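in:
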């Protein structure tokens, strides 16, 4: 169905997303749905920072990409913090210039600090602003931009209670978008061959996000000999901030800084070990993959632990605390791999959390809102 707001000109949207894959990949999923719903009669462009994941991933997906000089809040007493107000102002001015040149029909912000100057600039220029919030507890950027937003698309119903009644009325709970290529995973043997893994060995896929997770990486390194002795092969994404002290790639261990082909990585695995961010949770639910979750304890308001507890309470995952993962990683993985009944029960329970149409629902809702706004302007 073509729902382009104006059939004579392409629908145009500027997306502010990045910092981490948890913000970027849901936004890309929505961008893909804009193209599908408009029969490619659209132009989606992204804005982000030059030194984070979006600078690499967005161009690879074929989207135009603009940068702003915004940075996150560092240590309270640091030169970077002192300069932050200047960088915010520079970023707002840069975003205004980009918006004035590209003239989008709307702006979509997926959270994180880079969204703030873009959302602020959109509001100043009276461009419809839409927000995506993947966690139950809305982040600071989303809360600050919410009064200016046309709609806020949330993953959890609990998000409403963190907004005033007038803002809560504009919150729509649709789930967290996932990448479209996760809807049909390759077969296990093909996926394992992609990474040079053996086709018949029990396999665990371990990752801690695009930047990595120190506790998980240390636990894997500590457990490698145990995995080898037990005949378990490991696909290990270390993240860009961690490099093992030696080349440990063997026929049963495949180490990568970053896995771009997540569909194959998930398909190759019998069990996944990872953090408990909202996007990861959404992906695990869609693909129904048994998982051991290690929440990042420094996440804002410890929201990852809340995510992991919710899954564990439904029997959909195993929770390991960050402080205990080194000692408990191997026995937990081995125990789950050896218990097919537990794996099958987890796969069934994950269905409670699956929202396979979230990306489509968000894109459809935005198109309808912009279309309605265009009719009212006539």
């Amino acid at each position: 169905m073509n729902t382009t707001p104006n059939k004579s000109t392409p629908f145009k949207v500027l997306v502010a997303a990045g910092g981490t894959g948890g913000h970027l990949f849901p936004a890309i999923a929505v961008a893909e749905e804009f193209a599908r719903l408009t029969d490619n009669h659209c132009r989606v462009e992204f804005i982000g920072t030059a030194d984070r994941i979006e600078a690499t991933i967005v161009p690879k997906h074929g989207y135009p990409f603009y940068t702003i000089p915004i940075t996150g809040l560092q240590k309270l007493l640091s030169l970077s913090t002192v300069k932050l107000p200047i960088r915010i102002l520079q970023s707002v001015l840069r975003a205004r210039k980009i918006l004035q040149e590209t003239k989008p029909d709307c702006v979509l912000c997926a959270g994180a600090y880079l969204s703030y100057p873009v959302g602020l600039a959109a509001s100043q220029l009276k461009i419809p602003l839409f927000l995506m919030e993947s966690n139950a507890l809305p982040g600071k950027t989303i809360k600050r931009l919410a009064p200016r937003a046309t709609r806020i698309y949330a993953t959890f119903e609990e998000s409403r209670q963190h907004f005033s009644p007038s803002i809560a009325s504009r919150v729509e709970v649709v789930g967290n978008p996932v990448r479209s290529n996760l809807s049909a995973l390759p077969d296990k043997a093909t996926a394992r061959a992609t990474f040079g893994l053996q086709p018949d060995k029990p396999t665990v896929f371990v990752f801690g996000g695009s930047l990595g997770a120190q506790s998980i990486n240390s636990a894997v390194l500590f457990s490698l000999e145990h995995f080898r002795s037990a005949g378990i092969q490991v696909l290990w994404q270390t993240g860009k901030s961690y490099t093992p002290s030696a080349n440990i790639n063997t026929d049963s261990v495949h180490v990568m800084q970053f896995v771009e082909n997540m569909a194959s990585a998930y398909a190759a695995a019998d069990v996944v070990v990872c953090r408990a961010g909202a996007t990861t949770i959404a992906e695990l639910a869609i693909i129904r993959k048994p998982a051991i979750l290690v929440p990042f304890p420094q996440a804002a308001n410890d929201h990852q632990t809340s995510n992991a507890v919710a899954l564990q309470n439904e029997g959909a995952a195993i929770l390991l605390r960050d402080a205990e993962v080194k000692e408990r990683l191997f026995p937990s993985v081995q125990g789950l791999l050896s218990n097919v009944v537990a794996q099958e029960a987890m796969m069934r329970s994950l269905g409670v959390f699956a929202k396979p149409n979230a990306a489509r629902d968000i894109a459809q809702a935005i198109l309808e809102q912009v279309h309605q706004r265009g009719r009212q302007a006539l």
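note: The chain is about 45% helix and 15% strand.
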